[in-house]
Design a protein that fits this description.
Length: about 210
């Protein structure tokens, strides 16, 4: 079984315990993950072991040796495809949070990744185990990056010392996911600008604190 390790600042794919077999061939692995992501993007209902195996040109036995199921393949493929979105090291705290939200909006509006995220979120709503994997592997790394940005902003005097870090993260991320999964309202740079403009006065340090 392959699992994504959301270590802050060093996100990587780790190989966890899986059934005995030959080591995975990198080229074949990439082909399988690309097939899983392509099918999820085009039609999430078609994401099955058989469809992925056919598109990747491998046997279902190969897939079973390396992954628990289609969900894990799509999740690993998506995390690799979007790893760049976890890198936000330059600018002020508010600028970095803004950039992180812009990247999330980009993922949620890109046809190549929007479908896979929607598939994973719907799976997370279906059972507790899948929800735990989605939270740990997709939501968790993004929250940790945002938390690091906020805490660094507090440490350097940009942001208030008494703010609730988790509440700030909830406030800026929730509208994006609500629009993506529930209301269907537009996701845009203007939305991100508005969210940061709303939050900034409440979390920015006063002149006396700086």
């Amino acid at each position: 079984m392959s699992t994504y390790s959301p270590d802050l600042g060093a996100d990587s794919i780790e190989t966890g315990k899986r059934n005995p077999g030959r080591p995975r061939d990198d080229a074949r692995r990439e082909r399988i993950l690309a097939a899983a992501l392509e099918i999820a993007a085009e039609d999430p209902a078609r994401v099955t072991l058989e469809q992925i195996a056919n598109l990747a040109g491998v046997s279902r036995t190969t897939l079973y040796k390396w992954w628990d199921g289609p969900y894990d393949m799509v999740l690993e493929a998506l995390m690799e495809r979007t790893e760049w979105s976890l890198l936000h090291a330059e600018g002020t705290a508010l600028e970095r949070l803004h950039d992180q939200l812009i990247d999330l909006v980009g993922i949620m509006t890109d046809p190549a990744t929007e479908g896979p995220v929607r598939l994973l979120a719907s799976g997370a709503a279906a059972d507790a185990e899948t929800r735990s994997r989605f939270s740990k592997t997709w939501l968790g790394p993004r929250r940790r990056v945002a938390a690091r940005i906020v805490r660094e902003g507090i440490a350097n005097g940009e942001l208030r010392e008494d703010i609730d870090v988790d509440a700030v993260i909830d406030t800026i991320f929730a509208p994006i996911y609500e629009r993506a999964f529930f209301t269907g309202a537009p996701l845009s740079r203007e939305l991100v600008d508005t969210l940061i403009a709303i939050v900034a006065p409440g979390i920015s340090a006063t002149p006396r604190q700086q």
